Amino acid sequence: MLRTKFILTFELAPGDIVTTTALVRDLKLSYGDQVEVAFRTNFPSVYKANPHLSHIADDDPDAKHITLDYSQGIRSSREGNRHHMTTWFHRDFQQKTGLSVPPMYSKPDLHLTAYEKNTRPIDGRYWLMFAGGKRDIVIKHWDFEKYQAVADILKTKDVEIVQSGSDRVGHLHPPMKNVTSVVGWGGVRELMWQIYHAEGVICPVTCAMHMAAAFDKPCVVIAGGREEPWWEAYTNEYKAFGPAAPVRTEHRFLHSIGKLDCCKTVGCWNNQVVFDGDVPYNCLDIVDRPADAQQLPACMDMITVDDVVNNVMSYYEEGALPPLKSPAIKPRLVVPRMKQQSHTRKVTGNAYIPS
């Protein structure tokens, strides 16, 4: 094989960008110096410090431009085919280039700088909790009151919670009580930093779970019935990673597939719970609640506070995390607060970088 240059492009949500890093890693591990790879994306901070990237100019006559896509993978997953989304980029790349790239590790590939590894932005032992999410897919939101109940119970067990998430327009993270809040602190890079130094993560299906997997962190995912577990979950249960090495730290993926008619065999893949004037009503099974209360899909309401608490504690009980010390010390943000970074794109020779 002659030395080949690839400029890969993929632009979507941060979590989706994170999952593409597995392809870049495995491409370089498979072919080494025979390939050079550059990556163009709207969230370039995901690829900061990544040792697998080369600087390739857009107009390099020897470069092959490949736009990645996983839409066929979602359709295949909905047909019941058990493959994880991180591995679909390998298939998509092979379809477009003819170059086979076997999945090698069952996780994304994120890299921190020496400063980020050695400096804790938040002191103490803590779990990061994402008690909300994006407004464009509120069907993923769990009961906000249940998140608070989880935090309250875990505190009695000496597990401290730090609430995280974006405060940008289009995001919703209701303030919690008796927790440390870093909501709105930094951007995607700072999120990686928070997760790297956390004991674990509690979240819906979102970017944080992919980052947790990259760092082999415990994670309790409140998933409901929107998406198939084999497509999203970092577990070994479904053999969805093909020939890749097994997941080192398996997530607890709390789903409702098979428990309701609307998600009897696969997920519904709907976005909203009730009609909001812009997006059509599309949840098929909504919990009966007062009109002024948070509206919940039945698949999410089925997941209980005890389900989440017990799965968090299982990491301590099974020895995946060191024993807790009583009393716990409340975590504190020790790095100055900063504004969230813009991801406005500016082209350079290698990637889009924040301006």
Task: Sum this structure up briefly.
The protein is α/β, with parallel strands linked by helices. Helix content is 27%, strand content 15%. A hairpin with a 4-residue loop joins strand 14 and strand 15 (352-354).
Give the helix/strand layout.
Blueprint: E1 4-9, H1 14-31, E2 35-40, E3 63-67, H2 71-78, H3 85-97, H4 114-118, E4 122-123, E5 127-129, E6 133-134, H5 144-156, E7 161-163, E8 171-172, E9 180-181, H6 188-196, E10 200-204, H7 207-214, E11 219-224, H8 229-232, E12 252-255, H9 298-301, H10 305-317, E13 332-333, E14 345-347, E15 352-354
Parallel strand pairs: 1-2, 1-3, 5-7, 5-10, 7-9, 10-11, 11-12
Antiparallel strand pairs: 4-13, 6-8, 14-15
Helix pairs in contact: 1-3, 1-7, 5-10
Strand fraction equals: 15-25%
Report the radius of gyration as a whole number of Å.
20 Å
What is the makeup of the main sheet?
Answer: 6 strands, parallel
End-to-end separation: 38 Å
Helix content: 25-40%
Mean pLDDT: 93
The strand line-up of the biggest sheet is 9-7-5-10-11-12
Could you spell the SSE succession in H and E letters?
EHEEHHHEEEHEEEHEHEHEHHEEE
* Total number of strands: 15
Helix/strand/pairing category? alpha/beta
Low-confidence residue ranges: 340-355
What's the overall geometry? globular
Count of separate DSSP helical elements: 10
